[in-house]
Amino acid sequence: MKTVSSAALFLAGLATASPLQQQETRQSAGPYEITNFSASKVHLSGYCNYAFDVSAPGLSSPAHCKAYLDSGFSGATWLALVYEGAGNCDNEAVTWTFFQPTTEGSGATFNVTVNEVKGTYAVPAEDITVTLNSEPNPFDNDVAYSGPKDFAITEFEE
Ligand SMILES: *[C@@H]1O[C@H](CO)[C@@H](O)[C@H](O)[C@H]1NC(C)=O
Ligand SMILES: *[C@@H]1O[C@H](CO)[C@@H](O)[C@H](O)[C@H]1NC(C)=O
After folding, report:
1. Which pLDDT belongs to residue 158?
2. Which of 92, 145, 85 has its CA nearest to residue 111?
3. Whose CA is nearest to atom 5 of ligand 1?
4. 36: region left, alpha or beta (phi > 0 left; psi from -120 to 50 alpha)
5. Where is the signal peptide (predicted)?
6. Looking at beta carbons, which pairs linking 47-55 to residues 24 or more positions away fall under 8 Å?
7. Given the CA of residue 149, which atom of ligand 1 is nearest to it?
């Protein structure tokens, strides 16, 4: 009960603090529910694997999306850029991108577009784990998303 009432207060605070236009956009777009999200660099390789499912208003069933892309360097401490058009989904109404700056310890931006409405999600830096396996040999660094596998995208842009 206590959690519910403080969440309600928090939401009420957000509603008064946010511009009206943004509220309307959020309501029409609805949340995009991401499930089973994974992103990781293949050990001793520069390639990264991405996979997730997305449910959204306007999709009759969840879409499955994936990508396999090069981060440019097998010793990368970042996840590979998924540029526009590189993220595959089994539903052509869905596209997505992922960008993590190469600066060590950066978070990432994950954008999912459904029927031309783009949702954006900020992946916190602490949700991406970098493991430096060997100091003298940077080629076997491991990088992986370690945050929640299921989350909602609630920020939208027209
Ligand atoms: C979750 O993702 C992993 C890795 O892509 C996959 O092997 C597994 O089957 C998925 N689980 C579900 C429930 O979709
Ligand atoms: C995601 O969308 C935001 C807002 O439009 C944009 O600034 C950012 O560059 C996009 N990121 C990627 C990886 O496409």
Report:
1. 64
2. 85
3. 51
4. left
5. 1-17
6. 47/71, 47/80, 48/79, 48/80, 48/143, 50/82, 50/87, 50/98, 54/89, 54/94, 54/96, 54/112, 54/114
7. 1
Q: Are residues 22 and 52 in the same domain?
A: no
Phi, psi of 52, deg, nearest 5: -170, 165
Q: The domain containing residue 25 runs over which residues?
A: 1-29
- Whole-model pTM: value is 0.81
Query: Which of 35, 36, 37, 145 has most ligand 1 atoms within 8 Å of CB, for mutation?
Result: 36
pLDDT, residue 127, reads 98
78 and 16 in a single domain? The answer is no
Lining ligand 1 with CB less than 6 A are 36, 38, 51
How high does pLDDT run on average in the chain?
85
Distance (Å) from CA 137 to ligand 2 centroid: 33
3-state secondary structure of 142: strand
Residue 28's pLDDT is: 54
Q: Do 101 and 68 share a structural domain?
A: yes
What domain count does the chain have? 2
